[in-house]
Amino acid sequence: MRFVRRFFKSRMGGQQTDFWESLRRPAQPLHFVRRKFLLHGQSYNVILHKEAATNRLVVQGSSFVVSLSPCTHENFERFMEAWYRRQARQTFQSAIDHWIREFHARGIHLPAPRMKIYAMRRAWGRCYYTKGLITMNLHLVKTPLPCIRYIVLHELCHFLVNNHSKDFHALVESFLPDWREVDMRLKSFTREQRVLE
């Protein structure tokens, strides 16, 4: 070993210290987080890279590969909530844009509402029609995409019919004929996956 060190020292000069330190340095550890995470109705496990240079999440197959530093429980929870909020905003806005186009195609010129996202326990969404605002449940992004589109449509329809009368349900059904099946799927998924717990 001494011979090897002398050889590298003669060849590498001042770089030899960094070289030996890199050999001693342990490989970047990998850790599996022992709980599942949901996105758009799919279940993912988490592979955690500690001491990463950049905090990020990459979806690889059925895994979320999370690079995080410093890797503390609190930092991980904050990182995941921020990531979920970005996914939720993008997903919900895409659904809003889709339905607004559908309304316009039928000659119903509904202005695109403002949207706020909260983690709620008792509602998937709320419509404040006098304010041009809908609030969406952060946890909804964990459910299947058809369920997300249904809830967004439900809230948008409240701008036209602000109750749950027959007229309201007829309006929803005119855009989404199978809304009852989707509603049952959402309730079943929420119960089985404990989305709101």
From TrEMBL:
Pfam families with a match to the protein in the record: YgjP-like (PF01863)
The protein, known as: M48 family metallopeptidase
**Which CDD domains does the record associate with it?**
M48_yhfN_like
Q: What is the lineage of its organism?
A: Bacteria, Pseudomonadati, Bacteroidota, Bacteroidia, Bacteroidales
In this chain the YgjP-like metallopeptidase domain maps to: 20-188
Return the InterPro entries for the record: UTP_pyrophosphatase-like (IPR053136), YgjP-like_metallopeptidase (IPR002725)
